Amino acid sequence: MAQNGYAAPVTPGSTGIGIANLPNQRHKIVAKRGGHFTIMVVGESGLGKTTLINTLFSTELSPPKNYKNRHVKALDKTTEVEIIKAELEEKAFKIKLTVIDTPGFGDYVNNRDSWGPIIDFIDDQHEAYMRQEQQPQRNEKIDLRVHACLYFVRPTGHTLKPLDIEIMKRLGTRVNLIPVIARADTLTQKDLIIFKQRIRDVIAAQGIRIYQPPMEPDDEQSMEHAKILMAAMPFAIIGSTQDVQTADGRTVKGRQYPWGVAEVENEQHCDFRKLRYLLIRTHMLDLISTTEDSHYESYRQTQMETRKFGEGKVKKTDNPKFKEEEEALRKRFTEQVKNEESRFRQWEQHLIAERDRLNKDLEHAHSSIKALEAELDNLQMGYSRGSQRR
Length: 390
Ligand SMILES: Nc1nc2c(ncn2[C@@H]2O[C@H](COP(=O)(O)OP(=O)(O)OP(=O)(O)O)[C@@H](O)[C@H]2O)c(=O)[nH]1
Ligand SMILES: [Mg+2]
Prior knowledge:
By secondary structure, the chain is of the alpha/beta class. It folds into two domains: 19-314, 3-Layer(aba) Sandwich (Rossmann fold), CATH 3.40.50; 315-390. The chain has helices at residues 24-33, 49-61, 112-134, 162-172, 189-205, 220-232, 272-282, 284-306, 320-389, and strands spanning 36-43, 67-74, 80-90, 93-101, 148-153, 177-181, 235-236, 243-245, 251-257, 260-263. Helix 7 (272-282) crosses helix 8 (284-306). The structure holds guanosine-5'-triphosphate and magnesium ion. Magnesium ion binds next to helix 2. It comes from Dacryopinax primogenitus (strain DJM 731).
């Protein structure tokens, strides 16, 4: 594969998971918070969400024996999420990792029903946690609040679709949203770079909130990492659990093509390592604390402001989600009116043209009649002259 001009790999060798290398201070925070870390994958059907999860587990995240349990939770009758739990352990240091695999939605237009429940799921986790927090016994909370949400973008090479924009907007205000380009091996490196830039432009223009690694000016190394990670967003991903043989004889996780191997863990080929590095090495804690301090807090506040004491989840009309829906409905309505209007205009134009055509026909008919009448007059005159002669 062609060189892509990325900076030299930033991710060090893959010894261990890296949690044990966290500074002591951070160790304590994680320990205090119970070390829960939850990742969710979202995106259209068939983009490789499940494959990426399996790739994470088959590389260094966790050996299969740590696949603690895998269970399926129905969101509603059409949507199911799969919840995979594993425990990461390193030097007696534990993190409870949960990965939530959501079913992909189709790319047809009216598929609210398939991604709406995903948004609800995220809100419900905040809600459940808030309720538990209000209980007198506050130990051992069940916590499935999503710390990082990977949004899969189809590798079209063009730009984000309206559907992507709509969903990403909603996700971005609720969770740490990390956009990724799915199946990056299907684009050339040149197209990938252009595609990334277009996506970044749309994200900025549409005001979509995505996760930003914190910039700490007094910490040179973290600044360096943050810059490299930001430059790679949206992360290009190749997923595969297959071991394949490279031309130079290495065995790697990758996808075999007639022209060579697209390697999962090669930073010249994709950003899988950078993403994994961000998730479980450098930014796990930041993802946890921003979820806690920013996303959960903003959910809690809106709920508290609008909810009367003793009431459950706020009334539909006060609910920010309802407002979003209302806004979307209004937009759709305006669009429909616009469409109808333009259909009407076209029809009107058509009628005018038709009227003009008929008028012309009429004129034409008139002049033919006139000509015929004149001919008739001539004939009659000829006839009377003839009969006079007789
Ligand atoms: N070329 C290529 N194919 C991939 C990649 N990742 C996954 N695939 C293939 O894409 C197909 C769908 O992958 P899944 O992981 O099932 O996709 P998904 O997003 O989980 O799909 P849903 O569960 O239906 O939403 C499979 O045939 C995978 O082998 C990738 O990085 N590159
Ligand atoms: Mg899947």
